[in-house]
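Translate structure to sequence.
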């Protein structure tokens, strides 16, 4: 099932809204244009674009061309992108990405804090035990 590579887009092959159908498009072979697509995906880790797809939701109507081949063969027209088309619509906003990042950092910090609290408690127990032992030893030696 295809899913859209744009970080904040939830369109999949199964997404069905009345009167709206998505088409999914492979990354272009042209490296410069492919890089421009990748940049707009806002992935945290730029993965391979070989199997990545971007849905038609991110392109203007003018970005599509007539499927001349299928028209000639009298087949169902596919949506074909202009070779130099770049996704420009419904792209992730920088704030959406950074808030996601902030939430992730907050979660990480919570984990660190919890483990620090755990360590601190252990240290307190250790200090207390050590202190009691010292006292015990001192008392004995007196
Ligand atoms: Zn999409």
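Result:
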């Amino acid at each position: 099932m295809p899913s859209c590579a744009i970080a904040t887009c939830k369109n999949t092959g199964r997404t069905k809204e009345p009167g709206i159908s998505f088409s999914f498009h492979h990354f272009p072979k042209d490296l410069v244009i492919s890089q421009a697509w990748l940049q707009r995906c806002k992935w945290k880790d730029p993965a391979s674009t070989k199997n990545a797809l971007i849905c038609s939701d991110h392109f203007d109507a003018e970005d599509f061309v007539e499927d001349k081949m299928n028209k000639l063969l009298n087949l169902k027209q596919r949506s074909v992108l202009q070779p130099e088309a770049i996704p420009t619509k419904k792209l992730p906003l920088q704030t959406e990405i950074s808030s996601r990042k902030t939430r992730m950092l907050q979660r990480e910090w919570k984990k660190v804090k919890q483990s620090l609290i755990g360590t601190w408690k252990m240290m307190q127990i250790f200090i207390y035990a050590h202190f009691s032992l010292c006292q015990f030893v001192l008392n004995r030696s007196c």
